[in-house]
Design a protein that fits this description.
heterotetramer, A alpha/beta, B mainly alpha, C mainly alpha, D alpha/beta, A: six-stranded mixed sheet, four-stranded antiparallel sheet, 10 strands, D: alpha/beta, GMP Synthetase, Chain A, domain 3
Amino acid sequence: MRAPGDGHGTTAGEVLLAVEGVSLSFGGVKAITDVSFDIRKGEIRAIIGPNGAGKTSMLNVINGFYHPQQGRIAFKGETRKRMRPYVAASQGIARTFQNVALFKGMSTIDNIMAGRTLKMKTGFFWQCLRHGPALNEEIEHRKFVEEIIDFLEIQAIRKMPVGKLPYGLQKRVELGRALAMQPDLLLLDEPMAGMNLEEKEDMSRFIIDVNNQYGTTIALIEHDMGVVMDLSDRVVVLEYGRKIADGTPAEVSADQKVIDAYLGVPH
Amino acid sequence: MDILYKVLIDPFVQMGAAPDLLVQTVWEGLVSGVLYALIALGFVLIFKASGVFNFAQGIMVVFAGLTLVGFHEMGVPAILAVILTLGVMFLLAVSVERVVLRPLVNQPDIILFMATFGITYLLIGFGELIFGGNPKRMIAEELYLPTGSIEFQTLGGFVQLQKIDIAAAVIAAIMIAALAFFFQTTRIGRALRAVADSHKAALSVGISLNQIWVIVWFTAGIVALVTGIMWGARSDVSFALQVIALKALPVLILGGFTSVPGAIVGGLIIGIGEKIGEFYWGPLVGGGIESWLAYFIALGFLLFRPQGLFGEKIIERI
Amino acid sequence: MFYREAGQYKTSYAADMAVFPIRQDLIGVLLMLAVAYVAIPMFGSEFFLSSVMIPFLVFSLAAIGLNVLTGYTGLISLGTGAFMGVGAYACYKLTTIFPGVNIIVWIVVSGFFSALVGVLFGIPSLRIKGFYLAVATLAAQFFLQWCFVRIPWLYNYNASGAIEVAQRTLFDIPITGARATPETRYFVLLTIVVVLTWFASNLVHGRIGRAWMAVRDMDIAAELMGIKLLDTKLLAFAVSSFYAGVAGACMMFLWYGGGEASDAFNINQSFNILFMVIIGGLGSLIGSFFGAAFISTLPTVLKFGLPAIGIPLAGATAEHLTHIVVGGLIIFFLIVEPHGLARLWQIGKQKLRMWPFPY
Amino acid sequence: MSGMPSREDTFPKLMARNAAIRGGRAAMRRKDLGIWQTWTWSEVDEIVRAYAQGLRELGLERGDTIAIVGSNRPKLYWSILAAQCLGAIPVPVYADSVAEEMAYVLEHAQVKLAAVEDQEQVDKVLSISDRLTGLTHVVYDWSRGLRDYDHTRLHAIDDVIEAGRAAFAKDPSARAALDASIAEGKGEDISIILYTSGTTGRSKGVMLSAERSIAAATDTVTFDKLDENDEVLAYLPLAWVGDHYLNFAQGLVAGFCMSCPESPETVQQDLCEIGPTFYFAPPRVYENLLTRVMIRMEDASAPKRKMFAYFIDVAKRWGEKILNGESVPFSGRMLYALGEVLIYGPLKNVLGFSRMRVGYTAGEAIGPELFSFYRSLGLNLKQLYGQTEAFLYVTAQPDGQIRADTVGPLAPNVEVRITDTGEVVFRSPGMFLGYFRDPERTAETMTPDGWVKTGDAGFFEPGSNHLKIIDRAKDVGRLATGALFPPKYVENKMKFYPNVKEVVAFGDKRDFVTCFVNIDMTAVGNWAERNNVSYASYQELAAHPQVYDMIAAHVEEVNRSLAAEPMMGGAQIKRFLILHKELDADDGELTRTQKVRRGFIAERYQPLIDALYSGAAEADISTEVTFEDGRKGVISARVKIRDCKIWPASREAAATEKAA
């Protein structure tokens, strides 16, 4: 599946995001306990684990939606303070969701355009007129969005309302929306959940291409072990909110704890 | 400084200076709180069982009251009129279920909410068409409700309690107890509680969703009739009540949309709060603040505890 | 059926993103404007202008305002009537204090006052949603209504407590007051509505509109994409209240010509406008017009239409009937087409575009 | 202006002419990034020159060949022009050909460069690069996924163009050298080599010369009155003669604008947007379209369906007459005008045909009903008969002489003879020079005196100058009884039913005619839905008794019509079966142009044929299939056989037969 001459990730980049000793609980229920790992620039990092291992909570912590009670998160070398999620977005973190969270009433284009909101600057006055700077800006960003549409091969559904699209396409549009933010770190929450083999292959190709073409660092949660082993450079394994392994796909899949917790269980 | 004194200190000085007045005010607040609570109760019943935010509860109170008086004016004896009115409320419940709820099943909440607006307007229209737009006197004596007042001396002054108010409080308490009994012990009651949790669960009890809807709307109708009698006995039965019934909304916010005790406690807090506010702070701004104070109390409350008094903390999930 | 889209290809983004990208639609809109500006004043009677068209336009404006908030941003408001009132009183005060400035300026400026008040009452929207927010806006409704009665300064200490609309002119033609003809009032109002509708259309088709809809459809995702929820919601409140405010000012100055203002801006008015938005279609500008046309002309039609076809009707009965009909229609529409007249319009249009195919 | 004989004898010269006389007009569009990106003739001229310079720097020289692989994209068309500027020969290759097929063509054509569309094609070319010793560089249009590839021999077309521009900027003599190179191009030079997919054997490289190509295109441009105001949508395979002739050659000659679709999935949408004025599609496309129209109309409300049926009926009665300029009563004209407003106009609009002035179909026989349907709507649909070797036209129907059952009179400046064996042979202005590196087969096809054998059997209709094509000459067989058996003719009659997708008829040297049927999944599936017939797969639906009944009824109707025709009475279908799987190009059963590979099928399904002739009521079969993801598997089935009613040949028909 890899393109020839491809050598990404193996040459470790600098640390983009560091998670240190993070614990998170909801009213006494521990979701994450003392987890540390890092994500390096340019790699595809997978977070795996059985159901309820705290994977999605981990993503929610990373993009500032949950605030851990303990521990430290450093993004681009800076320790992060408590903040609202949109700050994470403006720092360059984008994500997709386990159960597609598209804007159902809007078209594919508008969904992806919404991902450009942060980069659009023209003021209210020009927006009222939708001419001059506002129109120019709209056109400039539309071009960018069209590049993404081209990239993801969703031209045919460009103007359709996303609510009516099949699931696999919705996931693609959601990826497009995240890409529109030109993120430094892209978080994908089970990008291939509920897809058939062909759709999974397409999605894998897109993920690799995103990583390859735009150099975007990607952290993804995935259940399909085959996909994870194929896609990712490094894998961190969680179980009951604790980290039980961390390393290359080969290392991780050889780890006895991981085999016990996850790989041994067919699903 | 003066204004601060007037707002922050003076009212409490007054309360201390004339505790009898304070007791009187609290009592009046309590009584209107009971009525708010009764309307809120109707909301909660329906919301719990069908997820419908029933905006029409207020007009149902008016409608029930008007129907009762209307029957009596036609020469029907009071008790029989009550029974006939209950029949009308049952018919209303059945038609609401048939005409409105059944075709709208599985629609988003907002749509059902809007549908109850439609019901409201229909009831207003029919009520006005049949009974005319003028206020009517409630047939309190005919229903053997006590009138007059008792007065007793306490705390250096007189406190006057209307007997009808006492009756209202007592009847409300009895009805709430009856409802609690109904929910806790009967099969239908259990089904109703089950349906609040999951529609499938309710089906497994062997009662269809449609029946449940009829039952809750009818129950809400009974509550509305009782509320209508009580309220009508205190003032008159008129459409103005419909706007006052909106006060049930802040009550619900305080108490939570699904909690019966919440509705009662919320109703009392709002009732007492706005009476005291009006009495002690109202004059500072020219009076009449009763019309909006309840909403501000609820709003302030919302900002600090969005889940209501008895609700659980909401964890947002993605 | 009338569409001939083959060959209407777009070679620029500006053309592709136009509000009316299909030529036939554009022609239709221009045609409608022509009817509004030429045919109606030419053939419409005074009664038609002042009892049908002017109320329709005022309510359309208010409905657009509420639609921005409820339809586009997903925030329910039951305080539109009061926000309209803020506009009306602001306009009254402004034109009293500065009688030299043209009244049209003040009608528009009064929208800003309303916007300000709207923002204040919108602040809770960050923490509360849905029905809870509806209660917060009820607070605004009742509080403002109380203000309109209890603050005599607002109505210049008139003994009647009413707004008195003085004569104001544009190019020496009276546009408000007793001597303003229905035609002039209609033209002024129509122009305001057309311009503001154009602004609204621009807004909802651009960055701001997308942010609103994003918040409406999936607020968490929107925030994680960098859309600031509070800013977006407050902007929606501001724009919505601005429109309501202008509508209120227009109502007083171009329609009622003064009167017991506190009655015009009560809770029932808020409900009325909410119905317009719901029946017209949430999240649709054209729906706002449909809803306004429907709800605002229905009473007139019943009141004058039924006697005209031989059914005698006392004034009060007409009102009661209106209630019944409106209530029944709300239920009917919700059952038949919960997305309102706008959806029916859209379906019809789609059918015409796809004709003879059914979809 | 287009009518005048062109002085420019190569395509690059035509391009330069167009840039000079209509530089500001659109030459090419492509829906890309959401809008129709447009290039004017002068822009195209500038780009192609720079591109040619860039290619020259990559080592492309006069006489070299360059492969063009991909779907219809401007940059690939520019690759053709740029190569021609240098005197190199472009060799378009079907984008969907598998690596093996591509390897053969590229190897045979000895390509030096390859201009390809995207990563998929780059991968394909790279996978066979060890066999392509002459291949030096690959240039590509779309860079996605190619970033990390080794770029020593791989270049983006954009970069090549930029390099060319840079070279022009640096060295003014480069531009002059290129101009000289264009001027040096001669009409008799090979302009392009088109490989035919071929129903049998290896593909052959048809060499076409520039002047002949241009002469032919000039003739037909005049014939159909095409000019610079026309618009076409280039959606058929770029390597196919039809696209090269109708869009590329005619476009350069007439100066009209060619639009390329955004992606293969959006062709229908793009067609609706562009609304071409000149349109070509094989009968299959029109057929699918009609099926879809009918299916969609079935979901319409009853009044609308009635109205549709009524006005289609009106169109049937008057439409073609009006189109042909015959006399029509006033009431007929009024009804038709009403129909135009209510049905035809909107229908043409949703199909993207509103602006169509000339439409062609060719490649196979078209059902008369189908043909009339489109014509009755007011679409000027015509038939042509042509071949790659003729580039392209042999016959074409002029306006006013349109018929479904003939391919029309001779195209301008074409000569045709019918040989003793009944084969059609021709000489045409665009006639090919020979097969590339294949003198043997060139000699087989072209007689020494310059006539080209078409391999088709046909005859001129008595009493008119219209040519009728029956079948491939070698396919026309005879039953054991001696009766004539033209398989394709029979098959086509069956295929005119929307429920039938594909038919393979057998009968040569047999006692009677039998056939395999493939049902049309869309049409029959829709029927099944309406009639509450449940099915899980094609196989299940195909075996359904009711489906068999339906097809049997079709066969009997076909038999009845065969019985009524001269010489065809013996070709009635006696037995048939419905195949358990759809015939598929991936399994080698169809060609890439979706034509039936008769011999291969006969071999593969031998047991079924045996059963058809043994009188058995059913037969078992198992076949290897290739799934969409490339895996192979075996499916087996028990297939039922039906007998059908045979009609006595009509007396008149019998008489003619005897006379013959």
